[in-house]
Write a structure and sequence with these properties.
Blueprint: E1 2-5, E2 21-25, H1 41-44, E3 55-57, E4 63-65, E5 68-73, E6 79-84, H2 98-109, H3 116-119, E7 123-130, E8 133-138, H4 159-162, E9 182-188, E10 192-197, E11 211-215, H5 220-228, E12 234-235, H6 242-248, E13 254-257, E14 266-272, H7 282-291, H8 294-301, E15 306-308, H9 335-344, E16 356-362, H10 367-382, E17 385-390, H11 394-403, E18 409-415, H12 420-423, H13 448-459, H14 463-480, E19 483-489, E20 493-496, E21 499-500, E22 517-518
Parallel strand pairs: 2-11, 16-17, 16-18
Antiparallel strand pairs: 1-5, 3-4, 5-6, 6-8, 7-8, 9-10, 10-11, 12-20, 13-20, 14-18, 14-19, 15-19, 21-22
């Protein structure tokens, strides 16, 4: 049995100033605040201030205790015991107990969360011998699970509100009740969401701020102006377009950082409908990947913040030996080679040079994505794929892609997270064709050989054997190409320098802001 006691980096320093309101950008407006149902990025900007996880993680990946004070792992890796924090209450005054953890994992995250079925795939039961002990029983060791316990990734939710209801439609989705440093007060549609200080927060002296307000500003230039004039103090996930961020960073009162995304591993990509429409043939999907000039896309649209994708896995997994570069992922793109792939597959151009037509949906998260869509429309036209761009609001887009499968190709980004089991498997496994669940296998790609490899990779303890499995996985996906990975995205956070203490979590803007304060 390996037991690990956890500790915070230290008590809050006295130099911090209490009080004040932090106004930050939430772009775009979230479809709900149900982070236990959807991992839509805008939800992540709000919900982790309200809900908490068992852990948080610092920028070096070190575990920070939150609702769990300590944990221990049995010698065989199949039992993980969490000692839970005492004296924690929900925002409605009810006590937080191990029953909430058991219910959250077994009845919510494992069933309706996009990534929970993979994060907790090995968990067969959560035992609760007392109110402050939760014992996870596993079929097989799952060390990756310990990297998936943040408020963003696995929010602990109140059993007394959700039990016996339809989890997806429960009123909690838009009226959240958590244990975190801020309490939900108001959601003014189209304008802002307001959270006030939790006066009964279990961390004495925190939060420092009286209030945090997430503002929704659809127009990119207006968002930039709000940052310039001090109306907002914090903007993450490229809410300020890169073209403006590189200009604003020259100011004395504004800075820009790429910190706070180390556990996210975001990958920009194109999802295809592999069951209906023009992209059923893998050759067409390979041609798209071959044609795209990834370096041009990074440098021109995202101002150099990114690295070209070279396989279905981020190169950041190279540190653990899992990443392998694959064919069909050229950095500069090759139009002639892409045309030949289509020619050889029998897709000949008509008199206008058009081989096929498609509608290209764009993630509705801002101007950078519109500009990326314009470039991709041009390059696809160069190989004879004529596309019309479609840009809708977030709820409509999510419903179209993940509920109705009413799309042919979709520009998006996915978080690959600290381990492929957590962030990559959900894109390709047959068991991840989960209609109505966001950010899973919307392509409806199904390959029994790949499914078997994914299952093996999830539980293989030997590093060399695991690397060999993931090389085979990447090889299959480079050939079948149900998803074209474009580039590893580097998000920018733009912030006013008077905002302090908001940068210590590896989850960045998806953290709690409990230690954030204003130096004014």
């Amino acid at each position: 049995m390996v037991a690990l006691a956890l500790s915070f980096g230290g008590a809050p320093a006295l130099a911090q100033k209490a009080g004040g309101t932090l106004v930050y950008l939430v772009q775009p407006e979230p479809p709900s605040l149900a982070s236990y149902v959807s991992t839509s990025g805008p939800i992540g900007l709000v919900a982790p201030k309200i809900y908490e996880g068992l852990f948080d993680y610092d920028n070096d990946g070190k575990i920070i205790p939150v609702l769990a004070e300590s944990y221990s792992v049995s010698d065989d890796g199949k039992t993980v015991t969490f000692k839970l924090r005492q004296g924690v209450t929900w925002h409605d005054g009810k006590p937080f107990t191990s029953a909430d953890v058991q219910f959250t994992v077994m009845e919510v995250l494992s069933k309706v969360h996009p990534r929970g079925p993979n994060s907790f795939r090995e968990v067969t039961a959560v035992e609760t011998p007392d109110d402050h002990t939760a014992i996870f029983k596993l079929k097989n060791p799952a060390p990756y699970m310990l990297r998936a316990l943040s408020a963003y990734e696995s929010p602990i939710v109140p059993k007394h509100i959700l039990e016996g209801t339809d989890i997806k439609s429960n009123k909690l989705g838009n009226n959240p009740v958590g244990t975190g440093p801020f309490k939900f007060v108001e959601w003014k549609k189209g304008q802002y969401v307001r959270l006030d200080k939790n006066e009964n927060y279990w961390r004495e002296g925190l939060p420092y701020l009286d209030r945090v307000v997430g503002r929704f500003i659809p127009d990119a230039s207006t968002r930039t102006a709000a940052m310039e004039n001090g109306e907002v103090l914090y903007a993450a996930y490229n809410a300020i377009p890169n073209i403006d961020a590189v200009r604003l960073k020259e100011r004395d009162d504004i800075d820009v950082t790429t910190d706070g995304y180390s556990m996210i591993n975001p990958m920009t990509l194109i999802e295809f409908n592999t069951q209906d429409g023009p992209f059923i043939d893998p050759a067409v999907r390979r041609a798209v990947s071959t044609a795209v000039d990834r370096r041009f896309l990074i440098d021109t649209v995202f101002f150099g913040y990114g690295n070209p994708a070279t396989s279905a896995l981020s190169s950041n997994f190279g540190a653990t030996g899992l990443h392998a570069s694959m064919p069909n992922f050229p950095e500069k793109g090759n139009i002639d080679a892409a045309k030949k792939i289509l020619d050889d597959a029998g897709f000949k151009p008509d008199g206008d040079g058009v081989r096929m037509r498609a509608t290209f949906d764009l993630i509705p998260y801002g101007e950078d994505w519109r500009r990326a869509g314009e470039y991709l429309k041009q390059v696809l036209g160069d190989i004879g794929i004529a596309v019309d761009l479609r840009y809708e609001d977030v709820p409509t887009w999510l419903k179209r892609v993940y509920h109705n499968y009413d799309f042919t190709m979709n520009l998006n980004y996915f978080y690959q997270l600290p381990d492929p089991v957590l962030g990559v498997h959900r894109h390709y496994g047959t068991d991840q064709i989960r209609q109505g669940t966001h950010f899973v296998n919307s392509s409806r790609y199904s390959n029994p050989n790949l499914d078997a490899l994914l299952a093996s990779g999830a539980k293989e303890p030997d590093a060399e054997k695991r690397a060999a499995i993931y090389k085979d996985i990447q090889s299959i996906l480079a050939d079948d190409m149900p998803v074209v990975n474009l580039f590893e995205l580097q998000f920018l956070t733009v912030y006013n320098t008077k905002l302090k203490g908001a940068y210590g979590s590896a989850l960045g803007a998806y953290s709690s802001f409990a230690e954030a304060w204003l130096d004014e």
